[in-house]
Amino acid sequence: MKKIRDERLILQNFKNIRTTLLIENSAILLILFWQGWQKNNLQKAFTYDNPLYIVLMIAVFTMIILSVNVSTPIEDKPKRSWRYLGLWALIELIGFTALFYFLIAINQQFISLIAGIALTTVTSGIMLYSNHLRDRD
């Protein structure tokens, strides 16, 4: 396979990939909505028991991580300190745990804490990754 050297063709190739992913994810969403409509229960279609939902989530999370890889160096913001990132992670942990506790699992503090830790790990990991890509000032 030959490497593309013309910048216009490279940009067109990226646009084609983006369009393909948009069409693919739209088709997956339509199928999930169709499954939910057929079963008269959308919550059954949007569960981790459904392989299409898992494929959609993998595609979405991959797109988020790859977009951070491109958008962070363009932002031209200075690196955040470790103290700032740690404080932000603590605020997220308290917020996510409280959200899960009051909205979903009122009598189950441990499950709320585990869910808060999981969400904080994901969001803090993305913040650490984007902080790693920033230039030092």
Write the topology of this structure.
Elements: H1 7-39, H2 42-45, H3 51-75, H4 82-103, H5 109-133
Main attributes?
137 residues; mainly alpha; flat
Net shape: flat
User: How far apart are the first and last residues' alpha carbons, in Å?
Assistant: 41 Å
Number of helices: 5
The proportion of strand residues reads under 5%
Beta strand count:
0
Rg, Å, rounded = 20 Å
Could you give a short description of this structure?
By secondary structure, the protein is mostly helical. Helix content is 80%, strand content 0%.
Task: Walk me through what this model shows.
With 137 residues, the chain is mainly alpha-helical. The chain is built from 5 helices and no strands. The longest helix is centred in the first third of the chain and has 33 residues, at 7-39.
